[in-house]
Specification:
Length: about 350
């Protein structure tokens, strides 16, 4: 998730746990600890693109790190505040535990992939139930922490307001999981009715909402793409089939950068060759037009970099598209959200 959400969630957790005992410092520590796992990006200048991709959302986002770091944070914070607050290290450790756990779990709801089982497994866990920025999830947390911090230290509202904020945001996640189950059923039934069986299916929420979705269905080395809005008047989806061209990746799959891209994309990619250049487009992040026009840039595109004699892939770089935020594109996405399907 975005940094604002992590900060707000950690602050609410700190406030709910220790707000009445230590005041606003509980919220500050909760916010700081909740953002700590993403500091793994500080190593990016020392890593190539493949190792950057493999390292981010790695060990610092794992359950092992959570268990090891929580008591350390507790001891360090208590030592920092030992002259003012005599509450021991365990309450601070619990703030750290829940703040780190919230960071891990909320990242899992997005489509990026989080290596929660490191160092035992690099499997990128993802639920694909929430967009990386979701104001409907974040707003109750921000409102909760603002209202709570405006209260006096001994006010009962400092107990109940952050708890209500956590409850509302958690219920939003649960509702999103229910919506996703429905969306999966729609994609499954519509595709089978038109094309028959398939190999696998992935659905991903659209920008800033869980009411508009993208779906990717793999069948016979092709990816079938469609969009679905909860406001659609029927469950018949219009699929666009795209050749995966996995044969273009196979010669390089044993090269570490190519293997990392295959791992990161979870196999939801299409390969493209243009002249001497080879590209892998990660479909999970969609296109700048949300698949509503006939052609647009992919959000996540990687260009392979070869050695001098072109016998190995040695790295890759990511092409940053110019996102189409024009009036026409915004209108298309808004109409699709309202249930109007493109021609």
């Amino acid at each position: 998730m975005d940094s604002v959400t992590h900060i707000a969630l950690g602050a609410v957790i700190g406030e709910a746990k220790l707000g009445r005992e230590v005041g606003y410092k509980a919220a500050l520590w909760g916010a700081a600890i909740s953002t700590f796992p993403d500091l793994d990006v500080l190593l990016n200048p020392f890593l190539d693109s493949a190792h950057q991709l493999r390292f981010h959302r790695g060990f610092t986002h794992s359950f092992v790190f959570l268990l090891l770091a929580s008591p350390v944070f507790g001891l360090l914070i208590q030592r920092f505040h030992r002259e003012k607050y005599d509450i021991g290290w365990k309450p601070w450790a619990w703030v750290a535990f829940w703040s780190l756990l919230s960071h891990i779990l909320i990242d899992v709801t997005t489509s990026y992939g989080t290596q929660i089982f490191e160092p035992f497994s690099s499997y990128p866990a993802t639920i694909d139930s929430m967009f990386i920025i979701d104001p409907f999830y974040t707003s109750p947390l921000i409102a909760g922490i603002i209202i709570s911090l405006l209260q006096k230290k001994d006010s009962k509202l400092r107990i109940w307001v952050p708890r209500v904020a956590l409850l509302v945001s958690s219920l939003y996640i649960m509702v999103g999981l229910g919506i996703k189950a429905h969306v999966n059923q729609v994609f499954d039934a519509s595709f089978k009715q038109q094309y028959g069986n398939y190999e696998r299916l992935k659905t991903i929420p659209g920008p800033f909402t869980n009411l508009l979705w993208m779906g990717y269905i793999e069948r016979n080395d092709s990816i079938y793409v469609s969009t679905y809005s909860l406001f659609d008047d029927n469950y018949h989806l219009n699929f666009n089939g795209i050749a995966k061209n996995s044969n273009l990746l196979e010669p390089w799959i044993d090269d570490y950068p190519a293997d990392v891209l295959n791992w990161f994309s979870m196999g939801y990619y299409i390969m493209e060759k243009s002249g001497n250049e080879l590209y892998l487009h990660d479909l999970r992040f969609g296109r700048s037009d949300f698949w509503l026009s006939h052609n647009a840039d992919f959000i996540w595109t990687n260009r392979f970099i070869f050695n001098e004699d072109s016998t190995n892939v040695v790295d890759f770089d990511r092409a940053i598209p110019i996102l189409d935020s024009g009036v026409d594109n915004r209108e298309q996405i808004w109409n699709r959200f309202l249930g109007i399907k493109p021609d």
